[in-house]
Amino acid sequence: MAHLQQILRHDKAYLTCYNSTPLEQELALQLNIPLFALDPNLLYWGTKSGSRETFGEAAIPYPDGSALVWTVEELAQVSVDLWERQPTLKRIVIKLNEGFSGEGNALLDLRSLSKFAPGQASTAERVAVISDRFQSLSFQCDTETWANFSSRIPELGAIAEAFIEGDEKRSPSVQGCINPNGEVEILSTHDQILGGPDGQIFLGCRFPADGAYRLALQEYGIRVGKVLAAKGVLERFSVDFVAVHQPQNSSLHQRNDQRDNEHHHQQKNKQENECNHQQDNQWDLQAIEINIRKGGTTHPFMTLKLITQGQYDNETGLFCNQHGKPKYYVATDNLQNDAYKGLLPHDLIDIIAQQHLHFNSTTETGSIFHLAGCLSEFGKVGVTSIGNSPVEAEAIYNQVIQALDEAVLG
Q: Which stretches within 293-366 are classed as H helix?
């Protein structure tokens, strides 16, 4: 601490961190520098129930659900209340209030309980059958059990929320930043790549989000950011959504990624109008949760920005390099294969260089890696694959997987 005090330039220094806790707060106080992050006393607004309250204040759409409860008995009752409000509901998401990356979520399937549906049985019977069915929840973490999950409800609290069904469903998100003056800036939008038993676990992302709804994401992000700023929240935040395609309007659907590339400068206003029209008619966006911290979409975007020195364009939701050319990427922290175990970081570099998949500073395309230290022991690495179109970024990402697989599997 004494050494830090000596080398800090207190008129210019501040503390930033991935996730703000009382420890970071105490460090900032002892160093007598600002903490540019969330005040730990405001952590509630990043919980599941805090998110739902914020969505209500921001007047953006979010699924029907319950207030925060602290016992299994209360959880059964609010789940039944939700079912009775929506008799056609097929599934309910049970969420620990402070779950992380979807691992605090579990699915309660109502489809096999039709004889207990509203109008077919009493409320008391429904509460009893739901309480019993908690034992067989579909957990998103394969090591989770009801015994452990339920033991955390009195500690963390839990909510019940309607599961959003859809034949074509995506998980976009918007990232923003609140500066010390309380001003909200939109940083990026993504379509998240999810996995796990029911598609609830964050694995990676594609930048930017689909043009059909990314401007709507930005608008919702600003609304949420303003509500959070009024509560004293600082620094980065993100809002996760579920987007469901409306089949009755599918004839209107047209991805505009190619148009983004071809007409970026000429058609900014036209794109904005089209994006708003498409979102209104084709996609139902429902806000799911708020993260008041850096997240899995933070470092890929920072990588893109630092390596290209480009800028995010709020009018189109695109990121352009210094020459005004839009850039795209696919990124993950979870490129994992047990066959990769034993590979060292220099092996990874050799494989990628031999296949010419490394980042090329001339074309500003290629892949940048992180978490390389995990490769040997866990067979896992992180990668951000950057291209000049969504198709190219996806192709580069797939080529990385192919190159690694061929190197270890032959």
A: 298-308, 345-354
Instruction: Quote the pLDDT of residue 115.
Output: 92
For residues 156 and 189, give the distance between their C-alpha atoms in angstroms, rounded to a whole number.
30
* End-to-end CA separation in angstroms for the chain: 51
Beta-strand relationship, 326-336 and 201-207: antiparallel
Contact 91, 111 (CB under 8 A): yes
Question: Phi first, then psi: what are they for 394, rounded to 5°?
Answer: -65, -40
How much is the pLDDT for 178?
96
Name the pairing type of β-strands 91-96 and 105-109. antiparallel
Stated pTM of the model: 0.86
DSSP state for residue 256 in the 8-state scheme? -
Beta strand 184-195 with 138-139: parallel, antiparallel or unpaired?
unpaired
Q: To which residue do tokens 């990402």 refer?
A: 397
Distance CA 230, CA 234 (A): 10
What is the spatial distance between Cα 212 and Cα 259, in angstroms, rounded to a whole number? 12
Q: How far apart are CA 175 and CA 295, in angstroms?
A: 9
DSSP output for 141-193: STT--HHHHHHTHHHH-EEEEEPPP-SSEE-EEEEEEE-TTS-EEEEEEEEEE
Residue with tokens 């015994």: 147
Going by the DSSP 8-state scheme, the letter that residue 43 receives in this structure is G
DSSP assigned state of 382: E
The Cα 343–Cα 375 span in angstroms is 6
Tell me how far CA of residue 129 lies from CA of 125, 187, 284, in angstroms: 6, 45, 32
In sequence order, the 6+-apart residues with CB closer than 8 A to the CB of 83 are 89, 92, 110, 117, 118, 126, 130
Q: Where are the domains positioned within the chain?
A: 2-37, 64-162, 325-410
Between CA 397 and CA 359 the distance in angstroms is 12
pLDDT tens-digit series, residues 25-51: 999 999 999 999 999 999 999 999 999
Question: Tokens 């395309």, residue?
Answer: 365
| CA of residue 103 relative to chain centroid, distance | 13
What are φ and ψ of residue 291, in 5° steps?
-110, 120
What is the percent of the chain with per-residue pLDDT over 70, rounded to a whole number?
A: 90
Which band of pLDDT confidence, cut at 50, 70 and 90, is reported for residue 213?
Answer: very high
Q: Are 230 and 243 in contact (CB under 8 A)?
A: no
Fold for the domain defined by 325-410: TATA-Binding Protein (3.30.310)
